[in-house]
Amino acid sequence: MSQNPRTSPSASNAESSPNSPAASVHVKLVLLGEAAVGKSSLVLRIVNDEFEENKQPTIGAAFMKRKINVDNVCVKFDIWDTAGQERFHSLAPMYYRNAQAAMVVYDVTRQSSLEKAKAWVKELQRQANPNIVISLVGNKLDLLEESTDAPEEQSGSAEAATSNAEGEDQKMDGEDGEQEESSSKPQDTDSKTQKEKPVSREEAEAYAKEAGLLFGQTSAKTNIGVLEIFNELAKALPLQQMISERQASRNSQLNRGGVDVNSMIRPSELNRQGQDPDARNVDNCAC
Amino acid sequence: MDEKYDAIVLGTGLTECVLSGLLSVEGKKVLHMDRKDYYGGECASLNLTQLLQKFNKTLPKDIGRGRDFNIDLIPKFMMANEELVKVLVYTDVTRYLEFKQISCSMVYREGRLYKVPATEFEAIKTPLAGIFEKRRLKNFLEFIQSWRDDDPKTHQGIDLDKDTMATLYAKYNLSGGVQEYIGHAMCLYLDDSYKNKPIRESYNRILLYVSSLGKYGKSPYIYPLYGLGELPQGFARLSAIYGGTYMLDVPVDGIELNEDGKFKGVRSGDNVVEADIVIGDPSYFQERTEVVAKVVRAFCLLKHPIDGLEGESGQIIIPQQQVGREHDIYITCLSFEHNVVAKGTYLASVSTIVETSTPELEIHPALNLLGDIVEKFVTISDISVPKEDGTSDNVFVSKSYDATSHFVSVFDDIKDIYKRVTGNELVVKQRANQDQQE
């Protein structure tokens, strides 16, 4: 995949920011949903600010990282993609383990994908941490817009206008030019050949409300609503509690013989493991 | 599923998952299937519900939430410096895992538990060697550590590949007790047949033990939180990330061969999925394997830590001669600190090679060390090995997991199968630019 030079973190920028976060938390976020609803595209959008037409199933990504700055806390998302293991119902318990947030994705043009999403929500409630924060996400909004020309999706998320105040704006605004290019490309023909009933926003939102989920509609392709989903997830997490728990577990790990296998096998890379100086993340905070 | 694969892997045990991961990373198109609806095959870690189902038992009282349990069906620890750990690190599978060190390694002698010395200082103080023997043991260990293949001055007239351990023990005038300590607590041999074999393997085992000990101290072992079943899951994810297709809970009804007798495909219900080769565990190829031994394993749930153990986890070795057997008995002790049992519960898993027609009686000396046992699950499993090496028909069958306490023999099998499948030696090294591929 091509790398967008403008997504490289700008350390000086972040350090000079007046509201550098006081604390940071690591959050494991898992993606779920039927194959081909755009899970990987959503990650690619939020992490690299890219979109690939006819994207092949993800190859080679352990997990991707994205930091979001909210309420003076730097939320570091480790985003786990299913790696195709959802297709034949073969996701391992490891996938759900210790996940604090989940995005259950469906395709707004296909009613059946919402039904699958509901099944995934059930699976999460059965397998995952009971306090997990789940967001139901209707993706491929651009396809719906094109056929119905309905503009309502933006009005629903009041966050959209304000969330950039959390310290994301320079970055994301700066990249707008990049997206024009991909959004002007012809529509994905695969999805359009499926003459399935689209999902109404009202129906999905009502279900989300009933099941106690966050809700949003997105287009990974035209970059609508993606950042908002992550911001809302970050805000819905019990951040202060997580910070104190992390402190406690860090102390107990040291006392109880937790070991960093990586640093013992390749000590030269201790920095890599400890600091995550991954130049490909969109880093918006100085933590 | 209609397409043709480079390899089909049957069973999601550790051996199969590591091979699947390695092949996928190399760009091979892999289909990985399992009859069961969970990962891990014979070496899965089961939650309490799965465990009770397997053993047809009802829930014991006051034992905690079923989902907090991850009981290893093959109890083992990882040596901190063994090759499997290196593969975990170099493939970045460690990103999915958290490890803890095991607090101690104990050895049973004349009714008591002794700590296996973890440092030179402890070695000098250990009651396992008599006062005059400590110097001889020290000389022996110095000889091992200073050995260089290309420097005859370090050989002292010994040939590692020709002389036997018995010869070396005689040269250093080491008593039976110290021999037991070296052979069973350090080399982790299950029986005494090593004494009449060339020194080389014992030499390698001592070096592995010492270097593993040097990593974190206390004991040479580490353990992944949530159980060993995390290992196959981690490698399965690696394989999936590199394009491997995973199907659990699918029928596997046998394999089909071409007219030339080579592997053609796997029958699953009405379908035959084709591939160049197949790799699978013995449970998928009973007609192609033979049983060479049986292992008895007892998983014991306790409400108290084991008496005499230093720390909340450890290994206890009961050397064969101490209890009049041919094979050692091992106990692996874990607790809720490893996320394998619910809070307040402890797990002791006993295993040994079956020698009589009453295997449950054979493990009594171990059970006697445990105190009150809340619930006990006993398995007796075959150790099967393939009859053929697979190179003539492209059907590669792995070995069952043995009774050893670490993964050295598992990894030997992985390396061996890898070589037979690809024609190349498995080189354990860091892959370049892993982060760039993320």
Description:
The complex is a heterodimer of chains A (287) and B (438). Chain A has one domain: Rossmann fold. Chain A contains 15 helices and 7 strands. The longest helix of chain A has 17 residues. The radius of gyration of chain A is 19 Å and the shape is globular. Chain B has 3 domains: 152 residues, FAD/NAD(P)-binding domain (3-Layer(bba) Sandwich), CATH 3.50.50; 142 residues, Guanine Nucleotide Dissociation Inhibitor, domain 2 (2-Layer Sandwich), CATH 3.30.519; 100 residues, Guanine Nucleotide Dissociation Inhibitor, domain 1 (Orthogonal Bundle). Chain B contains 12 helices and 19 strands. In chain B, the strands form 4 sheets. In chain B, strands 1, 2, 10, 11, 12, 13 and 19 form a 7-stranded mixed β-sheet that branches. In chain B, strands 8-7-15-16-17-14-18 form a 7-stranded mixed β-sheet. In chain B, strands 5-9-6 form a 3-stranded antiparallel β-sheet. In chain B, 49% of the residues are buried. At the A-B interface, helix 3, strand 7 and helix 14 of A face helix 3, strand 6, helix 9 and strand 10 of B. Strand 7 of chain A pairs antiparallel with strand 6 of chain B, so a sheet runs across the interface.
Lateral arrangement of strands in the main beta sheet of chain A: 2-3-1-4-5-6
- Weakly predicted, low-confidence segments of chain B: 433-438
State the CATH class of the largest domain in chain B. Answer: Alpha Beta
Largest sheet of chain B: 7 strands, mixed
**Assigned CATH architecture of the largest domain in chain B:** 3-Layer(bba) Sandwich
The total of helices of chain B stands at 12
The helix content of chain B is 25-40%
Kindly estimate the percentage of residues of chain A that lie in beta strands according to DSSP.
15-25%
Span between termini of chain A: 27 Å
Largest interface: A-B, 33 and 47 residues
Assign an overall shape of chain A.
globular
Strand content of chain B: 15-25%
Average pLDDT taken over every residue of chain A: 73
Helix share, percent of chain A: 40-55%
Which CATH first-tier class of chain A would you pick? Alpha Beta
N-to-C order of helices and strands of chain A: HEHEEHEHEHHHHHHHEHHEHH
Question: From the helix content, strand content and strand pairing of chain A, which structural class follows?
Answer: alpha/beta
Catalogue the unreliable spans of chain A.
1-17, 150-193, 267-284
Gyration radius of chain B (Cα, Å) is 22 Å
